[in-house]
Amino acid sequence: MRRLLFLNGIKAFEAAARTGSFAGAGQELNVSAAAISRMVHLLEERLGVALFERKANRLVTTQAGRAYQSGLTPIFDALASLTAQVTASSARVLTVGVGPTFAMKWMIPHLADFRKQEPDIEVRITTGGMQVPFADDWSCGIQLGDGEWPGLVAEPLFAADLLPVCTARLANGLKRPADLKGPSLIRVAHSPDDWPSWLKAAGVPRLTARGPEFQFYGQALQAAVDGLGVAMGIRPYIDDDLAAGRLVAPFARSVPKGMRWYLVYRGFRAEQRDFAAFRRWIIRAAAEPATRQKGARNAG
Predict the structure, then answer these.
(1) Percent of the chain whose pLDDT exceeds 70
(2) Would you say the C-alpha torsion 97, 222, 246, 209 has a positive or negative sign?
(3) Strand 52-54 to strand 59-61: parallel, antiparallel, or no bridges (unpaired)?
(4) For residues 83 and 283, what is the distance between their CA atoms, to the nearest angstrom?
(5) Cα–Cα distance, 272 to 1 (Å, whole number)
(6) Helix axis angle, 7-19 to 33-47, nearest 10°
(7) How many whole angstroms separate alpha carbon 17 and alpha carbon 29?
(8) SS3 for 53?
(9) For residues 262 and 104, what is the distance between their CA atoms, to the nearest angstrom?
(10) Contact, 117 vs 160, CB < 8 A?
(11) Residue 105: is it exposed, middle or buried by C-beta count within 10 angstroms (0-12/13-18/19+)?
């Protein structure tokens, strides 16, 4: 007769060991860090074995903990894969976690192409982004970062290059970066370093962006389309707007943001047919030459 010992505690321990913290495990399992700590402590009492050494600001697995985690992670991955296969047998659905601007500016406009290639696979888009933990029910996510997500595979998609954009009317008065005015530079609240990085590279580091501030890139870019000022565009958000002439780039100089866009997923997903088709498609789509900067006029 199979005897399973305290599955909640085992799951809490595996997540904490894999992420390196009780807080990281709590985010993944949607409980508090304190709850994870209690469950792990109870598991250690029931096993009669210490699984962690509690350091001042970090967790260190003991020899027994490392051995336990190295066996548990493949088991949980296999369980998740089996569950996904069973549920996929009746419905071919992929859930993709993306930020609101990425969904609006890239994912939704390109989904028709995926649908042509895979008409039987339904793609459901859910809210994600840098500040949202990777959810258990996501098939994958598309996230901006440094490529380090513990327990997840991260494959690079796009370089997040920064490039100022505005309407053609406003661009007519911008011959060089020094022509920019602080009150007309539209800002994004969660990316305060974008303008300083670009202005420093363009040779005008003393200029300070003081224009309207928005929560998301999509809002800032729409404000630029409406003629409110000059927004800091980020690829691939701006490619379609540049191609359509809704926005132009008054200066050709682009600056790396210091992060990239990644396709993020759990390793077992790679073996699933529908996800594999989506992965092939999005990597190919991301590798296509970027839309030419139709509005670029000057080498800033």
Answers:
(1) 90
(2) negative
(3) antiparallel
(4) 26
(5) 32
(6) 120
(7) 13
(8) strand
(9) 17
(10) no
(11) buried
CA distances from 50 to 56, 67, 73, 183 (A): 17, 12, 18, 59
138: nearest Cα among 15, 147, 18, 129: 129
Question: How far is 276 from 145, CA to CA, in rounded Å?
Answer: 22
Quickly state the pLDDT bin for 296 (edges 50, 70, 90). very low
Torsion of CA 149, 155, 160, 161, to 10 degrees: 140
Take residue 142 and report the two structure tokens written for it: 């598309």
Q: Could you tell me what percent of the chain has a pLDDT over 90?
A: 54
Give the 3-state secondary structure of residue 207: coil
Q: So what's the pLDDT on residue 79?
A: 83
How distant, in Å, are the alpha carbons of 104, 220, 243 from that of 238?
11, 11, 9
Asked if 264 and 128 touch (Cβ cutoff 8 Å), the reply is no
Q: Beta partners for 125?
A: 96
Q: SS3 sequence, 15-51? A: HHHHHCCHHHHHHHHCCCHHHHHHHHHHHHHHHCCCC
Tell how strand 52-54 and strand 93-98 pair up: unpaired
Between CA 194 and CA 162 the distance in angstroms is: 7
CA within 13 Å, CB half, 229: 19
pLDDT tens-digit profile of 76-132? 888 877 776 666 555 588 999 998 889 988 999 899 999 999 998 999 988 766 566
DSSP line for 208-263 = ---S-EESSHHHHHHHHHTTS-EEEEETTTTHHHHHHTSSB-SB---EEEEEEEEE
Q: Are 162 and 144 in contact (CB under 8 A)?
A: no
**21, 12 Cβ separation under 8 angstroms:** no
**Cβ proximity of 162 and 194 under 8 Å:** yes
